[in-house]
Design a protein that fits this description.
Blueprint lengths: L40 E9 L10 E5 L24 E5 L5 E7 L10 E7 L7 E6 L4 H4 L3 H5 L11 E4 L2 E3 L2 E2 L12
Parallel strand pairs: 1-8, 1-9
Antiparallel strand pairs: 1-4, 2-3, 2-5, 5-6, 7-8
Protein name: Protocatechuate 3,4-dioxygenase alpha subunit
Organism: Actinomadura coerulea
EC number: 1.13.11.3
């Protein structure tokens, strides 16, 4: 006896991404886009928060960026960076308080854009990762000419700009929904 083939009405439901287990996805060197001891290294720290302002302890963030000169890296070495220099890629799972961190360099401007770091957030409850950008507060003049920021309502732009916390330290919190929700991008 043969089994009938599935019909379009028998499709399986979508699944959310996460939770993420500590095998292979987060890896020890993931948050170190560059070693923290480098003279040009910056630290980016933040938290992923849900709609109620509670931490999301099992999210995963990926970052992609240009180097300090605005060059997009085109070499291998995203996971094992030794011998490959700057890859422009970082990955960090959140801790129990929703916290994440990256050691990287401040990117240079690419094209007409102000310097930014592209951020992907994977979390439970999301069917697909959400995309956003992190801009730097000292680049306010460049923000005025940035095509993407120009398309975002003025009152929401602050959700895309990190806060400076020290000479080479920035804070960038990601709110998944609710008051102060981070602007997410559609592609």
């Amino acid at each position: 006896m043969s089994t009938p083939s599935p019909t379009p009405s028998a499709m399986t439901p979508s699944q959310t991404v996460g939770p993420f287990f500590g095998y292979a996805l987060p890896y020890e060197e993931g948050p170190q886009v560059v070693p923290p001891w480098r003279p040009d290294a910056i630290q980016v720290r933040g938290r992923v928060l849900d709609g109620a302002g509670q931490p999301v302890p099992d999210a995963l963030l990926e970052t992609w960026q240009a180097d300090g000169n605005g060059e997009i890296p085109r070499c291998p070495g995203g996971i094992v960076r030794a011998g490959h220099g700057f890859s422009g890629f970082g990955r960090c799972g959140t801790d129990a308080e929703g916290g994440f961190w990256f050691s990287t360099v401040k990117p240079g401007a690419v094209g007409e854009s102000a310097p930014y770091i592209a951020v992907l957030v994977f979390a439970r409850g999301l069917l697909k990762p959400v995309f956003t950008r992190m801009y730097f507060p000292e680049d306010a003049a460049a923000h005025a000419a940035d095509p993407l920021l120009g398309a975002v309502p003025r009152e929401r732009r602050a959700t895309l700009v990190a806060e400076r916390e020290g000479e080479r330290e920035y804070r960038f919190d990601v709110r998944l929904q609710g008051d102060g929700e981070t602007v997410f991008l559609a592609f």
